Amino acid sequence: MSRLVFLLALLVPTAAMAHPGHSGTAGFLAGVQHPLSGIDHIAVALAVGLWAALKGGRALWVWPAAFVALMLVGAGLNLAHVALPFVEPGILASVVVVGLMVAFAVDLPVWLGGVMLGAFALFHGYAHVAEVPENASGFEFMLGFTLATAALQGIGIASGKALTSARRQPLVRAAGAACAVLGVVLAVQVL
User: Fold this and answer.
1) d(CA 150, CA 106)
2) What's the half-sphere exposure (Cβ side, CA atoms, 13 Å) at 141?
3) pTM for the whole thing?
């Protein structure tokens, strides 16, 4: 767990550079940095990985892949100027719900978990593209936030598997509870 905290601490200083107006933020680098600038996205991506690790089997690749794929669909909807209602509430709900799935180690069928995660990912992808810096290449930006999201999910999977195999599943579930609480706090701030 200390490795996870260390890795996140390394990423925090770069998060401030993810917003437009900073030099060196065009394209791929801006895309990588963008998901790391929002605690909501970090939390949900890690939680997807933790939940997949708790489930094991095909969920280890299906759930993260579903999230990333539908995140890109959400980005495409925004680029095509298709209105997606309730983007912010959907993002906040994803943090709470996925956190609760981890906290209670909910054992959904792989296909149903993938559908749920994909639905939430639409909102995340839509929001990412809404914040593309003016000087950024859209394709490179999307590639960057896709890889950053996949890396966060990978950290979640690795942490979840390590803790579960070390008989520390309660720590994984506590991380899920923390994610859900964070989502509630963020929702209260929005209201």
Assistant:
1) 22
2) 25
3) 0.84
Within 10 angstroms of residue 103's Cβ, the number of other Cβ atoms is: 21
Which run of H or of E encompasses 120?
helix 110-130
- Number of domains the chain is built from: 1
Q: The tokens of 50 are what?
A: 């933790």
DSSP string computed for 48-116 = HHHHHHHH-TTHHHHHHHHHHHHHHHHHHHHHTT---TTHHHHHHHHHHHHHHHHHTT----HHHHHHH
Q: How far apart are CA 100 and CA 94, in angstroms?
A: 10
Cα–Cα separations (whole angstroms), residue 8 to 5, 70, 80, 152, 185? 5, 25, 33, 9, 20
pLDDT tens-digit profile of 58-104?
Answer: 999 999 999 999 999 999 999 899 999 999 999 999 999 999 999 99
- At 187, which amino acid appears? A
- Percentages helix, strand, coil for the chain, rounded to the nearest 5? 80, 0, 20
pLDDT 10s digits, 16-55 = 333 333 334 568 888 899 889 899 999 999 999 999 999 9
- Provide the domain limits for residue 76: 2-190
Q: How far is CA 125 from CA 16, 61, 150, 185, 191, in A?
A: 20, 19, 13, 22, 22
